[in-house]
Amino acid sequence: LINMEKTIKFCKGFFFSVGLFLLYYLICPNLLSILLKKPLSSNNFWVYNFAYLAIYVFTFLILILVVHKDIVNQFKEFLKEPKDFMLMEDHNFEESEEKLQEKGGVSALDNTLFAILKDLRKKIAKKNNLPPYVIFQDPSLEDMCTNYPITLEELANIQGVGSGKAQKYGQEFVEVIKQYVEDNEIERAQDLVVKTVANKSKFKVYIIQNIDRQIDLEDIASAEGLTFEELIKEMEAIVFSGTKLNIDYYINQILDEEQQQEIMDYFMEAKSDNIGDAYDEFEGDYSEEDLRLMRLKLHSKHGN
């Protein structure tokens, strides 16, 4: 690597030399003629300029040889044994979305369909007296607007849906999507791979079975070497994919009926189920774990 201290010294010397060169042309055009006691004329003008340029170049070379020998040494080594080196190409961040799609770099979200599905979700939520996010969360709608599921089996394969939620709320969605695909002559990229309900990992099956047996959640986590937060994440993945989990037996141990109702009322009226927003609303009266468990109860009871 090049020594930074020497580099700074070299730069200072270089700019000082350039400054002297500019000073000659801007302020003291007759400097050499005065020093040599010869008038500057058209006959000797270029001689004086060449002499000063030679002095400038000589000073520049001295700076390199004396102050920055390692540059010279590296250059000599490169001449003896040339090596490949990489140049960074500037990225064009203004490249159009159409070009990116042609390259296969992104999946296009159908914003028109997304707005239609959000309106449908709002209508179904109002009909069932539920917050819209309980029906389907935004990531699920976005996945629908990318993959265009037109059957309940395909809908069950959408992120955060699952078979149970697809059967409960999905019929109107697949009908709307199917009609939209036909009306706009959309060619779906590929058919969705249908998952079976039984296609769960052994670990998730273990969690479901132990919750059904009403084993303490801390014991379930400990038996699998998980932290409690990691167990909650696994439970969220199960519930948000459409499987019911009845954790009332555990919630009743940590929250009384009034506390549960207070949290449930908040989630039923809130625009989103964001835990950070809920934590701020209650000003720390409940832990994030308490709120996440109550959110799981809400989605299991009404969403699945």
Structural features, described:
By secondary structure, the chain is an all-alpha fold. Helices cover 66% and strands 0% of the residues. The longest helix has 23 residues, at 4-26. Mean pLDDT is 76; it is low at 86-107 and 191-200.
Summarize the structure.
It contains 18 helices and no strands.
- Strand percentage lies at under 5%
Average pLDDT value?
76
Question: What is the share of helical residues?
Answer: 55-70%
Whole-Å distance between the termini?
61 Å
The number of distinct helices, counting runs of at least 4 residues, comes to 18
> What gross morphology would you assign?
elongated
Q: Unreliable runs, pLDDT <50, ≥5 residues?
A: 86-107, 191-200
H-E order: HHHHHHHHHHHHHHHHHH
Largest sheet: none
SS elements, strand count: 0
Q: Which class best fits the helix and strand makeup? A: mainly alpha
Q: Give the radius of gyration.
A: 36 Å
Q: Features of this protein?
A:
304 residues, mainly alpha, 18 helices
Q: Secondary structure elements and their pairing?
A:
Elements: H1 4-26, H2 31-36, H3 45-67, H4 69-80, H5 97-102, H6 111-127, H7 132-135, H8 138-147, H9 152-156, H10 162-169, H11 171-183, H12 202-212, H13 217-223, H14 228-240, H15 248-254, H16 257-269, H17 275-281, H18 288-303
Helix pairs in contact: 1-3, 6-8, 6-11, 14-18, 16-18
